Amino acid sequence: MMGANESIVQPRRSLLSRFGELRLGRTAVILIPMLWLAAFFFIPFLVVFKISLAEAAIAVPPYSPLWEWDGDNAFGTLRINFGNYLFLFESRFYLDAYLSSIKIAAISTLITLVVGFPMAYLIAKSQSTMRTLLLALVILPFWTSFLLRVYAWMALLKKNGPVNEVLMALGVIDQPLQILQTDFAVYLGIVYTYLPFMILPLYTTLEKMDLSLIEAAQDLGAKPYQSFFLVTLPLAVPGIIAGCLLVFIPAVGEFVIPALLGASDTLMIGRVLWDEFFLNRDWPLASSVAIIMLIVLVGPIMFMRSRNKEAM
Amino acid sequence: MKGTSWTLRLSAGAGFVFLYAPIIALIIYSFNESKLVTVWGGWSIKWYVELFQNEQIMSAAWVSLKIAFISATLAAVLGTLAGFVLSRFGRFRGKTMLAGWVTAPLVMPEVITGLSLLLLFVAMENMFGWPAGRGLTTIVIAHTTFCLAYVAVVVQSRLATLDDTLEEAAMDLGAKPVTLFFLITLPLIAPAILAGWLLAFTLSLDDLVIASFVSGPGNSTLPMVIFSKVRLGVTPEINALATLMIGIVMIAVIAAVFLMRRQQKQVAQED
């Protein structure tokens, strides 16, 4: 029995332990989401790994079994095939696809940061009503269809589309440019769709920043650009890292943007995986492409998780 | 603090223009009479009429709405449980693992999630005979799984900022954990759960990649139909569809802001 005084001294602890009183109920409540995620998030990765070690076969499903009871011995035969991985490393095409995805994702992440930073900063500096309005403007696209927002650029970037027409009217170019189906359009698409993911964590960090620090720097004679690079930017580092990871990680595996805006030779690994699966129907190879992509991304994902923990 | 500098205003303003120009262009084009999307042929609502007469789009929209409703509801229940367990249960075995499984789907590339779930469903069908083939059930399971993560994060952050004195008081007055949850905690986090449900609903409605992997023949969702049409080029009916979807979202967001304001005013008056 817990006395009243004790619970005043340690309120949080008593709340936690009271929730812990019903042992059985507690375990059940933990197990429901845990089992769901184990079954449909964790185990699928094991299945992908297993199939990445199989061989493609003309069968239903189109891969060879790893384990076969062929009557030679009681335990059956285990057939592990590293051929898919060897193929990935030997073929220039897949290596190029990984490198090019990482390059495209990294450059787009940097551009997103440059575009998003002033927006986040302005929101953080605004007064209450303006701030709510600007934040709503950033969040609104997040609620509208990603696919349709990428599609919107197809019309804008067409050869006879408005972007080309404006550039020609301004006299910047004489001939309409081929913008759609280039790498440039892919960068543009990534920056555009992932911009809110960059702005929101930046805003959260900048909002907490003590503005008097900048005033102090300027009172001490720092020029605006100096106070920006010496005070604002270093203080914003946690938000910058969070925003960059939120853009970079999904951008590496992006499929829709290169498929709609990119050229047929814009190499991105998400698209390679899609084609391997849907066009070539090579499930084991697609699985090994996915496993290598996961290995590439596991570092950034773990880094993000450790930072999240610090923040909490 | 000195006034906001012009460079900041200009660069941030350009950012907002960049964010909204394509959406506005899309809305204007949807009222374009001309079949050639980028040639202006006068105002018209004919593409809206054609949109509603397009059976393929309408039936796909119905499929998507059904899937989104069921997945968002399942995700709201499971996500609330996950968020609650993570922020109110203290330490327990497997907590780090659960926390990882909840946050990883947020950044996992969709092609990986889609492929892994499809391979799981195929393996399960071979082993247990369930789920038989791919269709609504498999899409609902897939969407519930990735939407659950979003609900859990929203609920968890709400619980983290929630003052627990009310829960404390109920405890001290002898409320059992189950009573406490349903009478105190749940009403307090209801807005967060609703926000999570809405987020899950829109994410499910929007998903192309995961649904393409786990759907079966005859179960095309709206994004799958849009993608197959759009891949071939700009289509006026899709402009009309996009405008409708954006319009619905805007009305919902404006209504939410308006309701929140009124609630805040009421609270202020009561004080």
Automatic annotation (TrEMBL), chain B:
Where in or outside the cell is it found? Cell membrane
Highest rank taxon of the organism: Bacteria
Q: What GO terms in the biological process aspect are recorded for it?
A: transmembrane transport
InterPro entries with a match to the protein in the record: Bact_Polyamine_Transport, MetI-like, MetI-like_sf
Q: How does it sit in the membrane?
A: Multi-pass membrane protein
Give every ABC transmembrane type-1 domain span.
61-259
Transmembrane stretches, start-end: 12-31, 67-86, 98-124, 136-157, 178-200, 238-259
- Cellular component per GO? plasma membrane
* Keywords linked to the UniProt accession: Cell membrane, Membrane, Transmembrane, Transmembrane helix, Transport
Which protein family is named in the record?
A: Belongs to the binding-protein-dependent transport system permease family. CysTW subfamily.
* The protein's name in its UniProt record: ABC transporter permease subunit
Q: State the organism named in the record.
A: Maribrevibacterium harenarium
